[in-house]
Design a protein that fits this description.
This protein is an alpha/beta fold. It has two domains: about 180 residues, Aspartate Aminotransferase, domain 1 (Alpha-Beta Complex), CATH 3.90.1150; about 260 residues, 3-Layer(aba) Sandwich (Aspartate Aminotransferase, domain 2), CATH 3.40.640. About 35% of the residues lie in helices and about 15% in strands. The chain contains 14 helices and 15 strands. The strands form three sheets. A seven-stranded mixed β-sheet has the order 4-10-9-8-7-5-6, with helices on both faces. Strands 1-2-3-13 form a four-stranded mixed β-sheet. The protein has a four-stranded antiparallel β-sheet with strand order 11-12-15-14, covered by helices on one side. It is globular and about 60 Å long. The protein starts with about 35 loop residues before the first helix and ends with a helix. The N terminus is likely disordered. The protein binds pyridoxal-5'-phosphate. The site of pyridoxal-5'-phosphate (PLP) has 15 residues, from helix 5.
């Protein structure tokens, strides 16, 4: 049975008109070959010969189509998508409004370079993001292509604004793979290993991690502030960069009060507070931006992943006077704010509003927590269930301890794929299973996916 979701538009089933996704893909898990099937195996062999072995893929099959809540592979197998291409296809894959906007824009012009000949969608997107990011103050934006590039530019902007150099990041942080963002990312393997030397003036403070440290938010914040004060010195500190809910680091939700205390300290000391909302941003957590759920108004927000429905776009949005600090021409990039991507992003914003996707993310949160708490009650290897909106994870441990069980996470993800569910792992210890379904997925498919996962856990 397909559950109709209020405010979310009609759900798709076999033969119905698509509201999300290109072709009318049946919204079901359906395997017609072994996984991976023969076509995927053939492509995998070609890939091994032609693609760098350093580029990994967690799924063993090749994509053919995707939409609503499914990914269909080249052998015709249909999988429930609980990953959204790492939190990117929040409004659904090939969402109709995105496809239409990109198609129309491609027919008009594909590129002029905003630094050469500007165009209106760039300006309109900056206006919209100024409204949607937390804080009632004058804001401006600059656009780039990847999340890492947005983070790098946020640091550049903060340095230009403050005349200071140091940057503080947190334990378990993930900020990207460029040289500066590798320095900011916590985890060595595989992101940094063998790639040094890294950029200087990056310092790491302890995060609030309720499952492991048991500290309340203010106490955890005092611990981090002591590090910033004593090891860096506020007078040297340009920016604090923090994910409101950590992404790759394990979907760690800081204890209440942690982020407000850090933000208050930043404000008192003239430090630019940067919320890296590349993963949490754009409706994923049930708010436009997760900072709002913490009662925090960042000076700068970095935005990417979910913003443009799969087209490469990132943004730094924040206080107008901070964005204006670098010299004219100091920010930019050939493809930054490419017109196909800005058109897609405006369509994403419209889709979130028209399909009621903030409310839909909160409904998905309820469903995920219900299923995962029931699993945790049965299975002592599930140590913690946490997250916000359609960004929820379980941390897997040796029963009764906080000792990470990465092998189990890997086994579950691998077996889930074989049974038709795309699920991703994360965490510094690799022992976290994360759930990031597109908000266009329907309840029936989500329940089917969690039935499969229950079976996988029972047999793992
Ligand atoms: C994915 C991610 C990045 C890096 O984004 P890319 O587009 O892969 O460069 C930065 N910060 C956070 C929080 C992320 O999740």
């Amino acid at each position: 049975m397909t559950t109709l979701t209020p405010g979310h538009g009609p759900q798709r089933t076999t033969g119905s008109t698509p509201t999300h996704g290109g072709p009318a893909l049946p919204q079901e898990i359906r395997l017609v070959t072994e996984v991976p099937g023969p076509r995927s195996r053939e492509l995998a062999a070609r890939r091994t010969a032609a693609v760098s072995a350093a580029v990994g893929s967690s799924m063993p099959f090749f994509a053919h189509a995707a939409g609503g809540g499914v990914v269909v592979d080249v052998d015709g197998n249909s999988y429930a998508d609980l990953g959204s291409g790492i939190a990117v296809t929040t409004v659904g894959n090939s969402a109709p409004a995105v496809v239409q906007a990109v198609t129309e824009q491609a027919a008009r012009f594909t590129h002029t370079c905003f630094m050469i000949t500007p165009y209106d969608s760039y300006v309109e997107l900056a206006e919209r993001l100024a409204e949607l990011t937390p804080g009632d103050f004058a804001k401006k934006s600059a656009f780039f292509t990847s999340g890492a590039e947005a983070v790098e530019n946020a640091v550049k902007i903060a340095r230009a604004h403050t005349g200071r150099q140091a940057v503080v990041v947190f334990d378990h942080a993930y900020h990207g793979r460029t040289n500066l963002t590798m320095a900011m990312t916590a985890k060595n393997m595989p992101y940094k290993n063998g790639f040094g030397p890294f950029a200087p003036e990056v310092y790491r403070a302890p995060l609030s991690y309720p499952f492991r440290d048991g500290l309340d938010g203010p106490t955890a914040a005092a611990r981090a502030i002591a590090v910033m004060d004593k090891q860096v010195g506020a007078a040297n500190l340009a920016a604090i960069v923090v994910e409101p809910v950590q992404g790759e680091g394990g979907f760690i939700v800081p204890a209440p009060g942690f982020l407000p205390a850090i933000a208050a300290w930043a404000r008192e000391n003239g430090v630019v507070f940067v919320a890296d909302e590349v993963q949490t941003g754009l409706a994923r957590t049930g708010a436009w931006f997760a900072s709002a759920l913490e009662g925090v108004e960042p000076d700068l927000v970095t935005i990417a992943k979910g913003v443009a429905g799969g087209l490469p776009l990132s943004a730094v949005t924040g206080r107008a006077e901070v964005l204006d600090a670098p010299v004219t021409g100091g920010l930019g990039g050939t493809y930054g704010g490419n017109p196909l991507a800005t058109a897609a992003a405006l369509a994403v914003l419209r889709t979130v509003e028209e399909d009621g996707l903030l409310a839909r993310a909160r409904q998905i949160e309820e469903l995920l927590f219900r299923r995962l708490r029931a699993l945790a009650d049965r299975d002592p290897r599930v140590g913690d269930v946490r997250g916000r909106g359609a960004m929820v994870a379980v941390e897997l441990v040796a029963p009764g301890t906080t000792e990470p069980d990465a092998a189990l996470a890997k086994k579950v993800a691998t077996e889930a794929a074989r049974r038709g569910v795309v699920v991703l792992t994360c965490g510094t210890d690799g022992n976290v299973l994360r759930f990031l379904p597109p908000l266009s997925i329907d309840d029936a498919l989500l329940e089917q996916a969690f039935d499969v996962l229950d079976g996988v856990f029972a047999s793992a």
